[in-house]
Amino acid sequence: MDSSYWHKQTSDKPLFPDMLWSRPENRAHAGKLLIVGGNAHGFAAPAEAFAESDKAGVGVTRVVLPNVLQKTVGKIFAAGEYAPSTPSGSFAQTALAELLADSAWADGVLLAGDFGKNSETAILLEKFADKYHGQLTITKDAAEYFVGIPESIVTRLETTLVISLAQLQRLGVNAHFPTAFTFGMDLLHLVDALHEFTQAHACNIVVKHLDNIFVAAKGQVSSTKLTQDPEIWRVKTAAHVATWWLQNPSKTFEALTTSVL
Known about the structure:
globular
């Protein structure tokens, strides 16, 4: 079986070592990231994404939260900016104009999670993904809004999904992908399925399985042994993915693969 599209990476043997040495030395040239997330009951995901993108070496970050959080969060999280929220405390559809204006400033956007379950927020995120044409990284419950209706997201260029295997499973089913993503898959069969999925669809996939993080883009797949807490990997990984990607926009697979080290 041909598996030339599978590239294995370890912490002491990066696949693309040149990427590690060619990073911007000056933060002013290290890119601008917009992080969106949060609801009335929590903002842990966007706050973590903010901290992790700083560790990853991003230049400048803006974080947009629903304005219901402004009174409680404003004093402890100075990086926050605020957009209209629903009565239940999630993002309202009227936040679209502000998100699009902020995304025009950014080199990349990360939908970091903690959006909560809200039908109005679902419409907002779908409209934003349609109208914004730059790099878009999606993780945690932000991805839940798209896996159920994947047509727009799997065909969207410049899109990376950092998702659980369960989310990937639902994405595959709803996108009518012929191969089932299952928890019983061995590494080779998962790699083959990711190879086929990303050949057929425009989006990039980052997923964890059997203590490895897999990156798939345009049919190429890398695997990296997971060294961090397997329960909290998504936001951290998504922040690093978004940062490395915006700094290397013409080398998507290389940037995403290097980011997970």
